């Protein structure tokens, strides 16, 4: 066997540092009844939004989409849902 030095304690310390994720997944309905500021506050707090879109997604998300993108967040429209993530949380669409 080859000499392989693996320090599991160091690895665990780095894993803990990398997994410091705060926030929740917030489910909601994007239908125009919730003010854009409320969605922005939710994202700013580190939460991910999963919104069921009831209407035109471009029109309904117009009040917060630009702010989310400019801050480094993501918006992905997928099968009637809009996923909105804060900066630092990516949505991997490679399998679509």
Question: Nutshell version of this structure?
Answer:
With about 100 residues, the chain is α+β, with helices and mostly antiparallel strands.
Q: Provide the spatial order of strands within the biggest beta sheet.
A: 1-2-4-3
Strand content: 15-25%
Order of helices and strands: HEHEHHEE
Quick one: overall form?
elongated
Which residues sit in consecutive blocks of at least 5 with pLDDT less than 50? none
What's the gyration radius in Å?
18 Å
Biggest sheet details? 4 strands, mixed
Which bin fits the share of residues in helices?
25-40%
| Mean pLDDT across residues | 88
* CATH structural class of the domain at 20-85: Alpha Beta
Count of DSSP-assigned helices: 4
Query: Which structural class is indicated by helix and strand composition?
Result: alpha+beta
Assembly state (oligomeric): single chain
Topology at a glance:
Elements: H1 8-18, E1 25-30, H2 36-44, E2 48-53, H3 57-61, H4 65-70, E3 74-78, E4 81-85
Parallel strand pairs: 1-2
Antiparallel strand pairs: 2-4, 3-4
List keywords for this structure.
single chain; about 100 residues; alpha+beta; Translation Initiation Factor IF3; 4-stranded mixed beta sheet; 4 helices; about 30% helix
